[in-house]
Amino acid sequence: MGDSTNICLSCGCCCDGTMIGFVQLDREELPALTELVDVDNANGEGFFLQPCKKFCDGCTIYSRRPKQCARFNCELLKSVEQKELDYDSAVEIVEELKQRRISIEKQLALLQIEIQSQSFYFKMVGLKNLFQKSEPASLTQNHLNLKSDLEQLDNLLSKRFGVSIF
User: Fold this and answer.
1) Are 27 and 45 in contact (CB under 8 A)?
2) Apex CA 52: angle with CA 47 and CA 54, to 5°?
3) Residue 29 per-residue DSSP state
4) Does the predicted model carry a pTM greater than 0.90?
5) Rounded to an integer, what distance in angstroms lies between the CA atom of residue 123 and that of residue 133?
6) Sheet holding 22-25, edge to edge
7) Alpha-carbon distance 159 to 166, whole Å?
8) Max alpha carbon distance in the chain (Å)?
9) What residues contact 105, with CB distance under 8 A and at least 6 apart?
10) CA 28 centroid distance within chain
11) CB-side exposure of 32: number of CA atoms within 13 Å?
């Protein structure tokens, strides 16, 4: 197993709802994947929301994962595969992402902001919308710190992983 695969399996931020909110499924995948994950079906089109129920410290259906999952290569993975970034540096970036997520989740709890979603990605979209609707004068310093942390998280996701919440 190469370094790039180890990064994917140890990272899992595309599976745990940090980077991606849902996975679209092809019609031909639906029968097999319906047995593996909780598939929502709208007009014959299937998808499932992140976090993936088959992710537990690594993908438990890796060899049978959906096509969209198999095709997804974040910019961090590409950088390692192209030898622009070494494995240890990539692991540090993944850890930074995970720590930023933990910090934001703690701030949400502290500020008692509840956004109804299991997916961290959709929580962040909801938080972004909440901040856009808020009057700047109504935001406390803790709210402004959270807003800043959200922007820093999005910057990290955009710069290093090639995805964005905004």
Assistant:
1) yes
2) 115
3) G
4) no
5) 15
6) 22-25, 45-49, 40-42
7) 13
8) 53
9) 120
10) 25
11) 11
List the alpha helices (DSSP H) in 21-119. Answer: 30-34, 67-71, 75-81, 87-110
Closest to 139 (Cα-Cα) out of 116, 121, 115, 113: 113
Quickly list H helices, the chain: 3-11, 30-34, 67-71, 75-81, 87-110, 120-133, 141-156
CB 64 within 8 A of CB 36: yes
Q: What's the length of the chain?
A: 166
Using alpha carbons only, give the angle 142, 120, 143 rounded to the nearest 5 degrees: 10
Q: What is the DSSP letter of 107?
A: H
Rounded CA-CA distance 110/108 in Å is 6
- Sole residue written with tokens 């540090």: 92
Residue corresponding to tokens 């609707």: 133
Kindly give the confidence (pLDDT) of every residue in the chain, 166 residues in length, as a single tens digit, with 9 standing for 90 and above.
456 667 887 788 999 999 999 999 988 888 888 888 888 876 667 898 899 888 877 788 888 889 999 999 999 999 999 999 999 999 999 999 999 999 999 999 999 998 888 889 999 999 999 999 989 888 999 999 999 999 999 999 999 999 998 7
Which residues, at least 6 apart from 94, have a Cβ–Cβ distance to it below 8 Å? 7, 10, 11, 13, 76
